[in-house]
Protein 1
Amino acid sequence: MREMTKGANVGLADLSDDTGAVIASLSWSSTAGDGDADVSVLLLDGNGKVRSDADFFYYNNTTAADGSVQLLGKTPTDSGSEDRISLDLTAVPADVERLVVAASRYGGSRFGELDDLRMTVADRTGEVLLGFSIADAGVESAFLFGELYRRGTEWKYRAIGQGYETGLAGLATDFGIDVDDEGENEGESGNVAGETDGTAEPLGAQTPPRTGEAEQPSTAEQSVSVPRQPVREAEATGPATAPPKRTRGPRTAKKKVTLPALVKKSLAENDAWKSARLFPAPTLKSDREREVRATSVLLSVMAQVPEFGRRLTAAFGAPAGRMQTFTEVSLPHGDTPKRPDGVIRVERAGKLWTALVETKTNGNALRSDQVQNYMDIAARRGYEAVITLSNDVALEGSPLVAVKTDGRRKHKVALWHLSWAEVAHQAHMLIRHEGVGNAAHAWLLQELLHYLQHENSGCHGFQNMGPSWVPVRNGIDTETLSEGDPRAVEVVESWERLIRQVCLRLGGELGQKALPVQRAQRGTTPQSRRAALADRLCEEGRLTAELRVDGSPGIITIVADLRTGKLRTSVEIPVPEGAYPLTSAKRLMRQLAEAPADLHVETLLEGHSGPRGTLERLRPEPGDMLPTDGSRITGFRLSLFKGMGASRGNAESGFIRSVDDAVDRFHAHVIAYLPQAERRTARRSQETAQEAGSVPAASSDTLVPA
């Protein structure tokens, strides 16, 4: 890997033989666990400007129609999470000379509050080619991490590391984006419509060309109107002190189709009538039947719904092109032909990208010998990837299957993994929140989801805590489990897989980013971190996880106490500095008027805990939440308790089901009633644009209620 310094550049061809498609990743960490930012990509012409506002890709405009850019969203890493971006350089239009990769914070947050700011670029096999770390971040609320630019027929990378105090608006305006400045401003030194406080001054070297006034949008939304026409040249070069009034451009994005969250009233005479399904599952009996049916159903929908197929394969280095899928293909291998469960082929500009697919359902484990055979076949035939698909969830530093690669082969084959939970998450996001091209595609994805969620499909995601679960639970109960026991490490790994699946499911239902929070020191390996957590499990008898969900007022904590058999789900609500204590307590009681009576409320004081009680007891007398010694209240902790399932599986009485139910209940009956943090969702941005008159109200982006 080439480590870059600020301002340095390198040709991608010097680092890899195959850089037609790359994955750019932006990452950061936070000791508080709640640091976050939004990535964005800008396509620039020879003048250093976007051709139109449609060349700006961010959280509410994630995919280029030609497949050149696709924001893949956040992926958990061992020290936090990273945003990944698929860049198909072969599909970039000829009049685009630069792809700038940036990120922005919101709500008054600054990049100096984050640690380990870093950008990496990997080739289609996932091999990291270069890395660039930013160590001098301070008050900036937006950063240019780096850019890919043309030099003749070659693509090169330049490390930028330039920041803006003016956030996303200042960054976007510099590159010719027409910025809407509607709504109230929260937490940043921006302007409301028609006001100005000077130019958007970037910090650091390599300042890009100015485009005039940097109007600041509401930081709660960072609402940049996409799509619109680019700023006229007269506007781009006019005086910063008196910018001309911008006119609204035409809407150029295609309308997307989503399905309503509420099911239409059934016309059946009674509940015994079952709706006809495109992919029936009740007759499936054997594991072989489940694997064949699940592979065929998934691959056929991927080929017929371009948005879905591209969503699942872009992260694997596949180009944007015509996709065809096949099942039960016989391929020669030694004396006995091998039959992978599926084959995916994508054609673009006369070139083929091919991946072999190996599928497992119903909790069956992947076999290393099978995957090794497919890796060998792919390498010999010049295929690009092998994709494994199972109920299991991959973790960093813990491979699902061990394979060997022949270093003498010039052609590299990438090994990728998908869980059924990830497949369902992407389908849910498209049909409920982001939209697809037409109603038929939405219906196909709905049928796919129904099939995946059917009890006979075997595609329910992670569903077994593993063989070490029972002996570890018994060892904690009898106090015979010692630190260093490898079985405790296996339970910690299973717990992490379960939490990642909970995040995928919850994020898909809400249309929000939901990620596990990792609090790891720099340089800590996944193995050492899990070993330390396993030792804590042996000592304390508890498994702990934290979730960060967009819109939630705080980090959600889940504690599974194996000694007491209880699950505790909680969130801490801070109290503003200087707030009157009794007023804060009464306000909380009003917000929780519809919350469960058994909700546990604990007052947090400086350095220790204060009064506590159930909501049922505290509602009549909010003053009982105040400390008698006059200590300053810093916040409140809200908790729900639930009995923990004992068995290792996904049965009704199992541990996995009890964790799912606990998180669902807490979010629906507690988090939903609290004031929401800044929501940067498609729906909220859509509503802001509708109020400003720039987007028709007929758009169907929706947010499913908690």
Protein 2
Amino acid sequence: MQQPVIRTAAVVVGPFVDDAGAPWSGEVTVTSSTPRVWTATGAVVAPRPVPVALADDGTATLDLPVTDQPGFTDGAGRALTGWTYTVAVALDGAPYARHTFALPSRVAADGPVRLVVLPDAGSVARPVWPALTPPSGGRPAPARVQDRALSRRETFRAGAVALGAAALTGWAASPVAAAPTARAAAAPGPEPVVPALTGAVTLAQVIEEDVTIGSVEKPRTLRIKSSGAGGSERSPDLYDSTGRIVLESYQPHFKWYGESIRVQLKDPRAKGMLAYQAHWPTPHYAGGDFSGRAVHPKDPITIAWIGAHFLDNDDPTQLRNNLRHGHLNFEVPDSRGDLQTRFEIKLIDTTTGRIGTDRSAIRTNLADFEHQVGAAGEQLRIVGNDTRHKDLAFSLEHGAKQPRWVLRAAAGGAQLQFRRYAPGAVHVDSPLQLDPGDGRVLVGGDEGSAGGLVVRRRDGVALSVETLLPGGHGILVSGPAGDPTARVIEGDATGDAIRRFVVQVDGTIAWGDGAAERDTLLYRRGPNQLGTDGGVFLRDSGVPDAAPTGGVLFVQDGALKYRGSAGTVTTLAAA
């Protein structure tokens, strides 16, 4: 159901007093951040600076609509909430301070809200701190003036404290909110000027200027607190106990715009790291090695470091030292608790050390790279279109200029190649290649310059070829055209000067003693003829079985004999 009436809340600004405690004269001007339409009546609420004069006590009261109530639109029908107000304070006609704030609806039920506005550090008027207790005699104590202008950090803290402890206090519940006559009747005497810390409401503070915390001389820490109780998603008391920083961005990136966090390294050796800290849990790792530390750590220690830096910390004059750095790096502790770089992305050229590279190196250190394969069958891929080679290189040095071996899926067909390189990144040959078309495996390189295939075997079969069809091929050796002397098989014994056994592609078989040229040949002499250039020796044997469709030539007791298919033995030559 639509809210018919615009809900408002009273905001009290001030009081503003001088060093003597006397109220200032002046005015407060309030402006809302955006126009809006109240849909119940169609009224257009257009922002206009509204001046309100300070009262005799140095305060100004503003009655303003709460900023998160439903019922407003942006004029195009879209709901609009979350606008802000800006108040500008002028004292005796001189600008004093500005402040931007939101006004949540929950403050409406708690009465007026006090808003304490402090000037920037550079203002002519100095900020004042209200006295906590009045002196005797009933007059408020004079405010304590700072002996110097507040720093921006101090101004920010003062504003935050005042806004949290005073401006956000339920004004109606404080002693200051009561009527003076009622307070006098109830408790005669001097009155405190600080409101009671009851009925406090949450009011976001909007800061429209840059904020610096700390200084060169005194760096400081901004701490975002969380609840130690922890939240729960199962209990009835569902809540989030984590403090956080939320950075909103609607900025499209161009040049350097669109950045949410900037870490500026002011020294070339500086590190800008994101640190994760935790306790080392003894109950969980009772046997851990803490020998690198005097005692088991009780306070949180850094367990992960993520960040970037450029030069070597110890000796940045040495290029070889700097080449180990110049990176975005990820560090985790070793077994002694010391942080070690495990993953890095180079932001420098790995040869010259200069910042900026067209081809960055991404490295691991003291780490195994594991690709976990799950039920989805995840893959480790090297991808690219078919006009580019896909290389996996094994190198000796940093960068891409010292490969020794490269496993390449070549462009234009993706032939898989094992490429061999000489020092200086000189490609020698590809000793092993696999053709994706027919699956053929090529050994030796395109020009046959590789050393070939060596098979070592202590026992058993060194090389097996199984043909799966009748008449299938086992081994095929092709020699150059017109050259019948190309060798199919060679054999020797360790220490031989010359191969003692050779089989050529024309079928010639040659034997030797391994010391001199082969002198015993067996070859095809002509159609249906087997020839040799020397004698044929037949060892003594018994009478062999008859061959049904042929004859057998043999030697018995030194005599050359022949046995025909009928079994008849004929002596051809006496012993």
Protein 3
Amino acid sequence: MRAVPPTTTAPAPHRWQFIRVGGADQVIFRTGQDIVRLRELDQKLWVALACPTRGIDFDARTLDLIDADGDGRVRPPEVVAACEWVCARLRNPDVLLQCSDVLALEDLDAGNADGARLIEEARRLLQIQGKPDSATLTLADIADRGELLSAMRFNGDGVITPETTQDDAVRATVAEIMRTHGSVPDRHKETPGVDRARIEAFFAEVQAARDWHAKADASDKTLMPLGEPTLAAADATRKVQAKLDDYFARCRVAAFDVQAVTALNPSPEAYDALGANRLDLSADPIAELPLAPVTPRCVLPLHGNRINPAWTEDIATLAERAVTPLLGARDELAETEWLAIKQQLAPLQSLMAGRPDNTAASLPLAQLDAFLRTREALLALLHDDEAAETHNHLLVDLEKLIRLQRDLVVLLNNFVSFKAFYRREGAIFQAGTLYLDGRSCELTVQVQDTARHAVLAGLAKTCLAYCDCTRQGQKMSIVAAFTAGDIDFLFVGRNGVFYDRQGRDWDATITKLIENPTSVAQAFFAPYKKFVRVIEEQVAKRAAASEAAGQGTLTGLATQLTTADQAAAGAAKAPAAAARTAGRVDVGTVAAIGVALGSISAVLVAIFGKFIDLGQWIPVALVGIVAAISGPSMLIAWLKLRQRSLGPILDASGWAINGRMKVNVRLGGMLSQTAHVPPGARRVAPDPYRERHGTTGVAAAVVLVLALVVLAWRMDWLDHRLPAALQHSPSAAASQAAPPAPSS
């Protein structure tokens, strides 16, 4: 009979709770299990799918710890990973809802391997800080981690400084490594030191040099006639051997034929070319000259001014390390003596062909052995320092845990849902509050590039004002959404004050404006305001043109008066004709103007007559006229207000908003609050500078009364309301009975 495999029951689906706000369903984080099971929440229900790590009001260090790939953006997989990481190390994830930066050690899960290591590291840290009995760890304790590590001998950065060592020989080795292989700064102490790569490279070179020295046995007189100093003699000889061979070869040719002496020495032209430039004794043109003047004697002076200046030091070294020890002290070196030196050093020169080419090869054998004796001690120090890196990782984990305990729920309420924004608790993307034009705008977002931001943010159907904010040499750009009040006095260049989330005040100046309606009521008056504005502009233009014409006439008259004596002769010839020409009026123009005014008057009278003929439908006609004028504007405003959303504004700032995130009229009225006198306040005196509208009000009342009288007359309301005695009086009857007068 086949064995039936045991069945595993899948965990019950998590029961989420949502709230409908901003036109989207948004999850509510009630318990720690909502955070633990976040992976199960469909990402289509997340409000945001990405946000930047900079430019928002959120702890940047926390975002960097969540941003696993370090690309400067936080995405859902990283948020889910952070939730699961922190919940796996806590006994009860409900503590995350407290948003506290104090970690109680009892909240860590001791039954979990990661949690147990964090408990042990937390107690170690408290012990170092002199608080062994404390049961809590704060973010401030972790924030001072750099100072703590810099005070420790081993800080886990894998760098050994001279101060790390406690032995003079090891300290000397570290100094030599820094001299020959460079240094690397200590990550916590900011002092130079050496790392594993430099230490291993140095000892590899020292060991190679020591192995080569083992082949050069100082007791072998054939190989090392001078013992250990033979190496220095061979080095000095090898450095000048080619130059000495060249010099003695020239001298041999000169001894063969005296006439070759001139050709073998530098020519005057060569010295002329050399003297034409700035002289440098170590330069190649001087070093290429012979070691000394070529003569048939075949003798090289070892001292004095007859040696080539570029080779003076090398020849002196040769004399000190090779000539004097092998041949004795002398002032000149003959060719035969030079050949004897080469013959004695020939065996060692062959061995030196395989000498390591590094800085350690030139060191004495005793010093190489001293360095090698410190190798084990130095590597032990390096091992101890690298072992401390495990504690560094645990300290970073403790910092991450405390920061997530404090900030994770805040991030979730500004990423998975927008609870902080719709409850007006201050969303992380809100930069502060802008005060301008008698309003306070809370929906402000920091902007990096105004031109690029405006292209996408314009789709939000919101009135947006881009502002440059300055404060004590600092500069910042923001965009503020005006969602209530009118926009009549919003224009580029207007100034206000911006308060950031830290309460600092900035000078704000509007640099770009995207106009959109803020309410249907504002759209109702918009056509009339535009009409009045056009009339004002036209009147201003006409007034400016008239003023310019008047100024031109006055200028011409002044010119005529100041030049009257010069124009007297010309003016006397035809004064009457000029006067008649200047004062003549074109009769055709006057007639045309009269016809035009008559036509306009006739049209206006006809329109007014038709309007009066409507009778009781006149109010309906007035409503229709108003609807025809304001209706399109109100309809457009209503459609735009229904489409007004937060998404494009945040998308342009680097977010990835998953829903539309509507900003309706009610929410907009809270985000942009206009000025109101507080309740209970009273005005103690009227405005002494208020506008006087007495005459205008009387004229408007008279026009209204006349319109009502005309309406009543046309509707025959007056006939029905005359007194009965007046209607049946004899005079009235006589007037009714009298026949009509004959027409002429």
